[in-house]
Amino acid sequence: MRRVCIVAGLLLTPLACAAAARFSGIDPDLLARANAGNADAQRRVALAYESGEAVPRDYAQAATWLRRAAAQGNALAEFDLAMLYRHGQGVPHDDTMAAALYLQAADQNLATAQFNIGLLCERGEGVPQDYALAAAWYRKAAEQGLAEAENDLGALYEHGLGVPQNDATAAEWYRKSADQGMAEAQFNLAVRYTAGRGVAQSDQLAAEWFSKAAAQGFARAQNNLGALYERGLGVPRDDAAAAQWYGRAAAQGHADAQFNLGRLYALGRGVAQSNAEAWFWMNLAAGRLSGAAHARAERFRDDIEKKLAPNDLAGLRERTRQLMAAR
User: What residues contact 325, with CB distance under 8 A and at least 6 apart?
Assistant: First the structure.
């Protein structure tokens, strides 16, 4: 028997039927509480429109409901509405409005809002650039244990922006964030151990923290971990492991890793020697690097190119073209 779908007295096509079945609608009790002025319910209705799970996604409707909740001082709604202004979803893009809303939520001690207003202060987006104020807001969020704020506060201490330059304090904040599993902080802490800045130099601890970040797909950590394996610093020397980690970072577009992987293919270290693969990765690196590194990659690529047949080179250029088009 042919199945049909009837919604509100309308006979729908199979395609429309499938679309209608996708949405369950907003819970009537929730909607009633939202219409009665309950701020938490209003925010939950807004999130339903924003996610597009219970109802078709509608950022404008989400913004309308968030405004109603934010007008009652609901900090989470203020934050969510700020995010819509930040990304121009359902409302015009407006960093100034976003900053004002973040500030309202931050004043209610919402850590994510404190971090975001700090980020705008650091970048000078929607508010005047002010590193000292950025540091103050990051600190408020960091003291509540927000990993992103801990990492970014560490970066301000590392570079002496808005706070006195202090490698030891930078390392302390990086560690707090790294211990929570933030890959960027794990990378930053590993760099501290590599150079012995703010911590006692330790290639072994550098390798451990690079490994944690690399396992999460952090390309810079993958490249640096590859370098440690290639040199046998903090880990046993292992060209195959080096090539593996360079390869993971290179596949994400990391230029230094592309160069390093191309070099290993040219030398046949950790991978089967291949001039074609060496040219391919070195060519990608040359397209991304700048200055002396760019010139070095170009020279390396051009030397390899002399060893390739015209047909092989044409195929590699087409492979490069397809890769760039896919991105």
Answer: none
Number of domains in the chain: 2
Of 70, 85, 108, the one marking the end of a domain is 108
Strands 5-7 and 10-12: antiparallel
CATH of the domain at 59: 1.25.40.10
Question: Is 204 within a domain?
Answer: no
User: What tens digit of pLDDT does each residue of 258-269 get?
Assistant: 999 999 999 999
Point out the domain boundary residue: 66, 86, 108: 108
pLDDT level of residue 324 (50, 70, 90 thresholds): confident
Instruction: Give the total residue count for the chain.
Output: 327
Count the helices and strands in the chain (H runs, E runs). Answer: 18, 2
For residue 287, the enclosing domain spans 253-327
Q: How far is CA 131 from CA 155, 163, 188, in A?
A: 11, 8, 20
- Give the per-residue pLDDT at 178: 98
Question: Is 320 within a domain?
Answer: yes
Helix (H, G, I), strand (E, B) or coil at 237: coil
CA-nearest of 109, 90, 100 to 52 is 90
pLDDT tier, 47 (very low <50, low <70, confident <90, very high otherwise) = very high
Q: Residue 119: CB partners within 8 Å, gap ≥ 6?
A: 134, 152
Q: HSE of 139 in the Cβ direction (CA atoms, 13 Å)?
A: 12
Whether 186 maps to a domain, the answer reads no
Would 304 be classed as within a structural domain? Answer: yes
CA distance 287 to 229: 26
CB atoms within 10 A of CB 211: 18
